Description:
Layout: H1 3-10, H2 49-62, E1 66-70, H3 73-81, E2 89-93, H4 98-108, E3 114-118, H5 123-129, E4 134-140, H6 152-159, E5 166-170, H7 175-178, E6 188-192, E7 206-210, H8 213-226, H9 232-242, H10 245-264, E8 269-273, H11 283-289, E9 298-303, H12 308-317, E10 322-323, E11 333-335, H13 347-352, E12 359-363, H14 369-391
Parallel strand pairs: 2-3, 2-4, 4-5, 5-6, 10-11
Antiparallel strand pairs: 1-7, 6-7, 8-9, 9-12, 11-12
Amino acid sequence: xxxxxxxxxxxxxxxxxxxxxVPIYQTSTFVQEAPGIHKGFDYSRSxxxxxAALEKIIAELEGGSTGLAFAxxxxxxxxxxxxLQSGDEIIATDDxxxxxxxxFTHVYQKxxxxxxxxxxxxxENVAQAINEHTRLIWLESPTNPTLKVSDIKAIADIAHQHPxxxxxxxxxxxxxxxxxxxxxxADIIIxxxxxxxxxxxxxxxxxxxxxDAELGAQLKFIQNAGGNILGPFxxxxxxxxxxxxxxxxxxxxxxxxxxxxxxxxxxxxxxxYYPGLPSxxxxxxxxxxxxxxxxxxxxxxxxxxxxxxxxxAFFKKLRLFHLAESLGGVKSLCCHPAGMTHKSVPxxxxxxxxxxxxxxxxxxxxxxxxxxxxxxxxxxxxFVQKEEQALV
Length: 392
């Protein structure tokens, strides 16, 4: 059975009515026969049939024991961090999403949790950073925005030499279509379901998948205690998005690879970051770690004119790529990491990880590939003209 068939088969038909679409149980509470005697649901913060269907689907899709759905990706991250206590330490990828950096550094650090930001593309760096207080290794692979790819299996082997360390992998950029972290040794997988899983830029959601059932029960308790749950309508929207996940991700990846190849040859571009290019420093890792079907739908590049003014001039000329936060939707988006997604990261740290003023991130959508290339070519023409004028 193909992966697409398995995914569609995991989306249940409603046993009560035969509805082919999972019903939206838009209710806060459920009638009980007697105190504690009910049909598995008592209050929608604790459990809701629509959310439960989504949680079961994502657990099956990633191959875990437990799925949990949250109001945002950051709410899901926050829930994992609540496993920790004062004095614990985290090893996190240095090229980390700005929202995660803000939560780690400005919220949890004041509670006595220490974070070590390192280059996780070299597993030896992880091994050297581990100490007796390490409780969590946090990977984004690929990272946001420079698309570093860490060797999840090698890092999992290192982590599992220490019984008290958990490995959490943010699988948002690859999605379950292209990367299966549990097969490589991860303990927890996180998704911003806002992105590829829902796929239409119409909701905010986060998902956790946990490999071990006992750990899953702990995180389920924290989800219920903290109340960071996803509502039934948004749960239904994610389920609807999942129905086309494989088709969408494969097309995103095909478009992105061709755009990355175009950008790599363009005279106005200094560097292109895309793990499907042999020039990417982590190409070999991505090549053996990713499933067949591509290397994701995000392409990042740096203009030769590495300034905020040049980036803004580029954005103003675009017609199909819309300047906006987020990624993974059917419509193409562009983003200025230094001024948008990673603005909360100190300038020095941004520069250390390559987030300069001329760095631009593209979320390649499902428009016609040649139309997207033409849009980029038109926006980049101004820099070629400027260079030609300078030579006259």
